[in-house]
Amino acid sequence: MEKGNNTKIFERLDLKYDIDELVKDWKKVSVDLREHNWFGHDDPGNRTHQTCVQRSELCEDFYKDGCGKLGKKDKKQKEREFTIVNPTFQGTIFEKICFDLKAHRGRLMKLMSKTAYSIHRDRAPRIHIAIDTNPDSMFLFPDQENKQIYHIPVDGHLYWVNTCVRHTFINGGPSRVHFVFASDEINQQFDGCWERVREK
């Protein structure tokens, strides 16, 4: 993907949800979710766990089939097909956010202490809401001028992140939890500022 002059990387949106309700519902679902509902739980070396808030009609494992790299799955599914809210999240603020913003492929993503993702690109920008974080938890964009670094605070705001450009996320403190999803409705507000990574 060519980096254009108008490329935007990160923006806090005016959209905001009640952070107390987010934390309360996170605590509720974290009790209801079982260890096997978390993608990566069965790999002792994997310190990046995630679970699906939304699934597609083709999912067999509601909570894990939408995790990881979709292109490597047996069923070639598109991100936009993951729109059905999973039972554990029904009646929570997570369902409300998915409905309000026409979200797809919503996931809760945990990054354990002193862990980083590999440098990668996503197919489309992501919306992040921090639920539990620390000051040493941040995005890093190594190819951008001055190797841009961004921290998302626990403030209830939605943050639009252009993850179509090469990036990683580094957590140098205690474990971090974000609610992450895609939204065509929000991405349209940033038309011309990002370029979709082609699905293979």
CATH class: Mainly Beta
How many domains would you count in the coordinates?
A: 1
CATH homology superfamily: B-lactam Antibiotic, Isopenicillin N Synthase, Chain
Question: What percent of residues adopt helix (DSSP H or I)?
Answer: 10-25%
The secondary-structure element order is: EHEEEHEEEEEEEEH
CATH topology name: Jelly Rolls
| CATH architectural type | Sandwich
Q: Judging from the principal axes of the Cα atoms, what is the shape? A: globular
- Say how many strands there are: 12
Q: SS-based structural class?
A: alpha+beta
Outline the biggest β-sheet.
Answer: 6 strands, antiparallel
- pLDDT under 50 segments (min length 5)? none
- The separation of the N and C termini measures 14 Å
Number of DSSP helices? Answer: 3
Beta-strand share of residues:
25-35%
- Arithmetic mean of pLDDT: 90
Rounded Rg: 16 Å
Placed side by side, the strands forming the largest sheet appear as 1-10-7-12-5-2
Characterise this structure.
There is one protein chain. The protein has 200 residues and is an alpha+beta fold. It is built from 3 helices and 12 strands, in the order E-H-E-E-E-H-E-E-E-E-E-E-E-E-H. The chain has a 6-stranded antiparallel sheet. A 4-stranded antiparallel sheet has the order 6-11-8-9, with no helix packed on it. The mean pLDDT is 90.
